[in-house]
Design a protein that fits this description.
By secondary structure, this protein is α/β, with parallel strands linked by helices. It contains 11 helices and 13 strands.
Length: about 350
């Protein structure tokens, strides 16, 4: 690292929504331009449940990439009550599935076919524990009686801790953590537990949803929490603890669906995710640890080598204006705007 210019191993995104169809073709390039690999979420309609569906989706992603681009989509299986352990094992052993995603039914976008009873998936969890396959958890209860700001903490108590006691060898990623409770829970674990953190949860608290009115483009699930939770996320992200790594949870929705009577949850940050994280690490005087968080810790958890090529970021150079929206077919997607200046720009990728 020298002055206002840093060079790091090309980062990876360990939690990404690429959607399908026209939206996939429009947005995949934003992630592929920056990240070497990405764990791709399976919550399509219908969801990606078996190896054949994952192979077909991976082929569509690759077909949507710019010619010759080396971006590698890492596919996941959507856990359902009726998931077959044999399908999960086959997909993992054949290198098609890299993980299984557990959505509590009704917890977030396209989670209606998610898990309704943890008892129903015990055979799958036992098989995953045996073969060392990671389980990626959307860590919120879908119980409408639980306050939306408490659903992560309640999930840890009601679901995650009992599951990990029952399957102590299971490798688990608690996705897009948002609370002190989640940070402390992961830090207390002896082994087998990691967490992803998003750029937006590092940069906004729940006030952003209501600043000057209702701001639907700041609404995501899990929702942003109080300032003390945001500060805890920032502290652990820059700490160098390799159990915490970047997962952007970039989740595009058409603007008309975000601003509808019942708006969709999700923040599209793919065009500026790395720049936002660099800004956070700069503000926390921890740029020397940026590479660990975005390029090395996640690869280590998944048993992969860091990317061999490099990427360069520069601070305060050029006159590049932040992208406000992306057009897809006859609609637009709003790009995440943290409401504060972002000084960092991607200067180049070195192959």
């Amino acid at each position: 690292m020298t002055g206002e210019r840093i060079e790091i191993a090309r980062p990876d995104d360990w939690h990404l929504h690429l959607r399908d169809g026209a939206m996939l073709h429009t947005i995949v390039g934003f992630s592929a331009a920056v990240f070497g690999r990405a764990i791709v979420m399976p919550n399509l309609v219908p969801p990606v449940r078996v190896p054949e569906e994952a192979e077909a989706y991976r082929a569509r992603i690759r077909a949507a990439l710019p010619d010759g681009h080396p971006f590698e989509p890492l596919m996941t299986a959507y856990m359902t009550d009726s998931a077959d352990p044999a399908d999960i094992r086959a997909g993992f052993e054949n290198g098609i599935f890299h993980a299984v995603k557990l959505y509590p039914a009704g917890a977030t976008t396209n989670s209606e076919m998610g898990v309704t009873r943890m008892a129903a998936i015990r055979p799958v969890l036992a098989e995953m524990e045996k073969i060392g396959m990671p389980l990626l958890v959307h860590g919120e209860v879908a119980d409408p009686e639980v306050d939306v700001f408490d659903r992560e903490a309640v999930y840890i108590e009601r679901v995650l801790e009992p599951m990990r006691r029952g399957f102590p060898g299971l490798r688990v990623v608690l996705e897009h953590v948002t609370t002190v409770d989640a940070v402390e829970y992961v830090r207390a674990a002896e082994s087998g537990l990691a967490a992803t953190i998003t750029p937006h949860h590092l940069m906004i608290n729940r006030n952003a949803i209501f600043r000057g009115g209702l701001r639907p483009h700041m609404y995501c699930l899990p929702v942003a929490k109080r300032e003390r939770h945001r500060l805890a996320l920032r502290a652990v992200a820059v700490s160098g603890d390799s159990r915490f790594f970047l997962g952007t949870d970039s989740a595009p929705h058409p603007r008309r669906d975000k601003e509808a009577d019942c708006g969709c949850a999700g923040i599209f940050n793919a065009p500026n995710a790395l720049q936002c994280v660099a800004q956070v690490f700069d503000e926390e005087r921890a740029l020397d640890r940026l590479e660990g968080f975005v390029s090395r810790a996640g690869a280590e958890f998944y048993g992969m080598a860091p990317n061999s090529d490099r990427i360069v970021l520069e601070k305060g150079v050029g006159s590049e204006a932040p992208r406000e929206r992306v057009g897809v077919a006859d609609h637009a997607i709003r790009v995440f705007d943290p409401g504060t200046p972002i000084s960092w720009r991607i200067a180049s990728g070195l192959r």
